[in-house]
Every structure is written in structure tokens, then in C-alpha cells.
Design a protein that fits this description.
Layout lengths: L1 E5 L5 H8 L3 E6 L11 E3 L12 E4 L11 H4 L5 H16 L5 E6 L4 H7 L5 E3 L12 E6 L11 H4 L4 H4 L11 H6 L3 H11 L3
Parallel strand pairs: 1-2, 1-4, 2-3, 4-5
Antiparallel strand pairs: 5-7, 6-7
Helix pairs in contact: 1-8
């Protein structure tokens, strides 16, 4: 299959599909850090949605859509136009003429749900795929079935300190914090490639 991984510079998902023989490409406005620039389209993904893809997995920026940041809308009024821009971009991905699609984002706040026209189809956790961490990840799906859990390690995770269970939430401030918080979990990426790569 020809697969585009939108808004991905880490190539975590792209590489998993490549390992299984698919023609997968990451696409982002910055250079990739995943080691395979030959599999990376450095451009706005909106310029490539009609390039004949069989599947798209997209990771649009969640900063203005995520429920975790909703309080900032009431603190900084300048965030509202950015919310509208983020929702427009999200909807362009969701409405792309690609038969199989997964749009990934954290739990959205109520304003985002209204703007993107609906709630997510599935919510997964990293601990359902072998990672000793908790971070709710939502999928808006079209033409793809819900992802089956592959390695539930919740009991082991619960034995860890809260700061380790919620590593992303407790990540220290810094210039790379936003990028590091958005890196996708390899266990979920493997499940996507194993399960959706066969559809």
C-alpha cells in the first residue's frame, strides 16, 4: 500500500509500515529525525493529499485542540483564532479523499469537538501496547477497524511512581518539550502496521 504519515517527523509509524513492505512516507514541514530522509516529504501535507494514497495516518498538532489546554483559551484570547485554524487543518485531513484514514490526537475539549464535527472513534493507552505509561490517545477512523490491544501491562505500570506512569505530563519545561511530548509510541505504531497493514 501507499501510505502517508501526516505531520510526522520522527518516522516512528512510517518505519513500521516500511518494515512490512509498504511504500510509506512521513510528511512534515521540518526535516525528519527518523533516519530515512528518502522516505520523508518536507512540505505541508495539504499539498500532497491527492497524490494517490491508499491510507493516511495523521498526527495534527494538538496544542489548541486538546482538553489539557482548554483553560488557556480563557486566559489568552489570542488562542481562539489558533484553535479555529487547528480545527480547519484537522478537518481537511479528516475529509481527504483517502479511503483509509486515522487521525490521532489527545482527548479534545468541547469547543474542538464542535469544530471538528464529532467525537473520536477509539481511545487507546500506551500500556495496552507494552509501554509502562499512561497517555490517552484518540483515533478518528475511516475505513479502518479499531486497533486491537497487543500487550496489556497496566498492572506493572501501576507499581511505578506516578511521575513515571505519567512521564509525558510531568516532563520538564524546555525548548524540546513540545516535540518530545508528541513522539508517538512504538508499540502502537507496530500494532497499526501489523493490523492495518493487512487491510
Amino acid at each position: 500500500m501507499r501510505i502517508i504519515i501526516a505531520c510526522e517527523e520522527s518516522q516512528v509509524v512510517c518505519n513500521e509500515f516500511r518494515k512490512r513492505g509498504h511504500e510509506a512516507y512521513s510528511c512534515d514541514i521540518i526535516n525528519c529525525s527518523g533516519g530515512h530522509p528518502e522516505w520523508h516529504i518536507k512540505d505541508d501535507v495539504l499539498n500532497h493529499l491527492d497524490d494517490g494514497w491508499d491510507m493516511m495516518i495523521a498526527h495534527p498538532v494538538c496544542k489548541y485542540l486538546a482538553n489539557s489546554g482548554v483553560k488557556h483559551l480563557h486566559i489568552d484570547i489570542k488562542r481562539w483564532p489558533k484553535l479555529f485554524e487547528a480545527a480547519i487543518f484537522f478537518n481537511k485531513l479528516k475529509n481527504a479523499n483517502i479511503k483509509k484514514k486515522c487521525i490521532e490526537n489527545p482527548i479534545p475539549h468541547k469547543y474542538a469537538v464542535q469544530l471538528i464535527g464529532g467525537k473520536y472513534d477509539q481511545l487507546v493507552q500506551p500500556w495496552q501496547f507494552g509501554h509502562l505509561e499512561s497517555k490517552a490517545t484518540c483515533f478518528w477512523l475511516e475505513g479502518l477497524g479499531k486497533l486491537k490491544h497487543t500487550n496489556n501491562v497496566r498492572e506493572e505500570m501501576l507499581k511505578l511512581p506516578k511521575s513515571e506512569q505519567n512521564r509525558v505530563h510531568y516532563m520538564s519545561p524546555g525548548k524540546d518539550r513540545e516535540r518530545l511530548r508528541s513522539v508517538f509510541y512504538s508499540g502502537i505504531a507496530r500494532a497499526m502496521a501489523d493490523q492495518w497493514g493487512l487491510t
